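Anyone up for a design puzzle?
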């Protein structure tokens, strides 16, 4: 009986303390609950908006390809350029690659600005970024100076990227076209030192070295 009384008094005391705590801190409690609800609501809103944006960009990309199939390159270019400036990692990169593959832009400055915008304003996985850098190097190899081209290629050359041998081959061919055979040979030799190299890359580098040695 005494034990039950003590237990009852303990429960009353505990409830009183909880009630007192609630009364003294109810504004803080309500604020925390409200803050949590705001975070949850904002997260759902952000995810829903992101999904809608992805769907809209996917539809725009498909629309651009339809215009290309119908021969309207200017309209396709405008749509793809607009997608690039939406700063979506996936569709921005895909749009730039499609512009390059279909030669939709002739203006060097415009293309350079697109590369610059993507590389400066978006974050990519390392291999995607290296692919973009390789394509930029390939694009610039037609008009850039040696120093400019090497500056673009440097991040790839200093990595173990799967795009490294392609970049070495590009630079070897670049210096071969400039008749700077000693520099070209250095890049081709680096290609041949890579293990598990694709046969076509190995064969191309070996063939170029043979041609250089015969000059």
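Challenge accepted. My sequence:
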């Amino acid at each position: 009986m005494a034990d039950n009384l003590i237990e009852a008094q303990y429960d009353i005391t505990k409830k009183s303390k909880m009630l007192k705590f609630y009364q003294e801190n109810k504004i803080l409690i309500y604020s925390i609950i409200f803050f949590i609800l705001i975070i949850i609501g904002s997260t759902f809103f952000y995810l829903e908006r992101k999904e809608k944006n992805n769907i809209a960009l996917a539809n725009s990309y498909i629309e651009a390809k339809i215009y290309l199939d119908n021969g309207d390159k200017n309209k396709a270019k405008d749509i793809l350029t607009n997608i690039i400036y939406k700063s979506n990692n996936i569709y921005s990169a895909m749009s730039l690659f499609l512009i390059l593959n279909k030669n939709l832009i002739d203006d060097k400055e415009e293309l350079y600005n697109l590369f610059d915008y993507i590389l400066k304003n978006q974050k990519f996985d390392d291999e995607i970024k290296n692919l973009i850098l390789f394509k930029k190097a390939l694009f610039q190899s037609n008009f850039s100076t040696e120093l400019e081209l090497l500056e673009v290629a440097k991040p790839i050359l200093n990595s173990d990227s799967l795009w490294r041998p392609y970049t070495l081959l590009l630079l070897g061919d670049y210096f071969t076209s400039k008749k700077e055979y000693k520099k070209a040979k250095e890049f081709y030799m680096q290609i041949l030192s890579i293990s598990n190299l694709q046969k076509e890359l190995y064969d191309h580098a070996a063939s170029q070295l043979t041609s250089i040695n015969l000059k």
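A detail worth pointing out: The longest helix spans residues 2-69.
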